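dude i think i finally got it to work??
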Amino acid sequence: MYWDAKAFHRSYMEMEKQFKVFVYKEGEPPVFHDGPCKSIYSMEGNFIYQMDVNTKFRTNDPEKAHVFYLPFSVAKMVKFVYLRDSRDFGPIRRTVIDYVNVVSEKYPYWNRSLGVDHFMLACHDWGPEASFSNPYLGKNSIRALCNANTSEKFNPVKDVSIPEMNLQTGKLTGLIGGPSASRRPILAFFAGGVHGPIRPILLEHWEGKDDEIKVHKYLPKGINYYEMMRSSKYCLCPSGYEVASPRIVEALYNGCVPVLISKSYVPPFSDVLRWKSFSVVVSVEDIPRLKEILMKISSRQYIRMQRRVLQVRRHFEFHSPPKRFDVFHMILHSIWLRRLNVRVSDGNDVMPN
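look at this
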């Protein structure tokens, strides 16, 4: 399930020993140093909080920092800065521009590297839009995004794909579990809103069409969403308006092999995790062949994938305080890897290693 397990372990342990992050102190909540912790955008708020309180990776001495974190929440900007239904991104853009200007005027680090050793994190769909407010932020900086869409200029070489997680209570209580591979009678399952270009195609071909593939626009009354996942071998994870879906993490939590149906999506932590070893990737064009594709997977191969799901899900678990190898550490490790790709010289030049 890893491209190179030994290399990952060595790199991870080195990160724990060395990696230091300077969190800019400027900015007041709710837009800065704050974020949602109990919603589909919960990764934003939880990461901001952990970086503000974490003493292991955070340094108060910017001269000792490997990277510099811009602690703004795009989700909170949408709530407190954006005029609802206006489609005017101007206030969000100006907020980002002003913040970068503040830290670049007060400190030498942004101008020294033109943002290469800086990073932002956003789980809102408009994270990419916010990043392009400043051309260097979008082009040079490390962008940790749930909306990891290569057709919208997500660059896997410098950017980080992070999981979209719907932590409704802010905790994992009741979210992780499920029976073994042999006790899952349903072949595949999906239930969710019909938005974006892919889900209508899925519903057109499979809603109410097959007893082994349970596809619903809305779950019937009395049917529990998580119980359906725990009764299914495969959980369908089609993109909605944007490429990311919380169903991917929900599938992993419930021991269900995720079926990724998307375009231009880079799954989280792909530089470390070999997704095809524990998930199924189906193109939009192959949605009519969905059952055929899944039925061709042998029982032995499915059991192997399902066991890997149970092994890999620790990398997607959220803990407060964080635990080794959990999602917080995996995000930092991805940022660490990308920071190793550049060298900021004393002569203010940014050079690839």
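The domain at 181-316 is CATH 3.40.50.2000 (Rossmann fold).
im so relieved honestly
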